[in-house]
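Retro notes
What went well: the complex prediction finally ran end to end.
Inputs used:
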Amino acid sequence: DIVMTQSPDSLAVSLGERATINCKSSQSVLYSSNNKNYLAWYQQKPGQPPKLLIYWASTRESGVPDRFSGSGSGTDFTLTISSLQAEDVAVYYCQQYYSTLSITFGQGTRLEIK
Amino acid sequence: EVQLVQSGAEVKKPGESLKISCKGSGYSFTSYWIGWVRQMPGKGLEWMGIIYPGDSDTRYSPSFQGQVTISADKSISTAYLQWSSLKASDTAMYYCVRPYGSGSYYSWFDPWGQGTLVTVSS
């Protein structure tokens, strides 16, 4: 399995400030034939299913506010919230879909307001 | 609108069997893989496996192979996750998911079902 490790496990950020969540894969999720990173990000609020934010590591899903952005390549990725809003309090997960043997998620990062 | 609607919460005893369902609508059910994700209480997301309803091709995560059975009835656009003998450790929320693109399951998941809470307790 490709192991996805997120850091930190939790963080507290002031409203209006930048939040940064990292995700590291145990092997590259960059597919050389199409130069795409097989990496997605989700947001999960209490009592709700996860919601897709980002795919191909940096493509924002339609309707997702532009304060959310994804970056990185190969094994190291970042989800950035440029200006934290109260409604962004949630748990965030990265997911690799490179391996056809088993799709795997990071352990999650809990984001709170400071 | 593409939707996945799951069956309701279940409370079962250890050793009992269970089959939960996920009905797809708003798309060609036989052209897209449909899978299952487990979330144990207070924990993260675990991909369990996936089925292609068009030909019933099924893939399992090594962690769940032999522990559950995934099936589908394309005549009613419904996928299933079943257990033959539940354990307390099967207590979790289970989500059905659809990969974005048709024909391939190595993709991001969108949409997700609303979840089915399974509680196993004596």
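What we learned: The two ends of chain A are 35 Å apart (CA to CA).
What to try next: split runs per interface for comparison.
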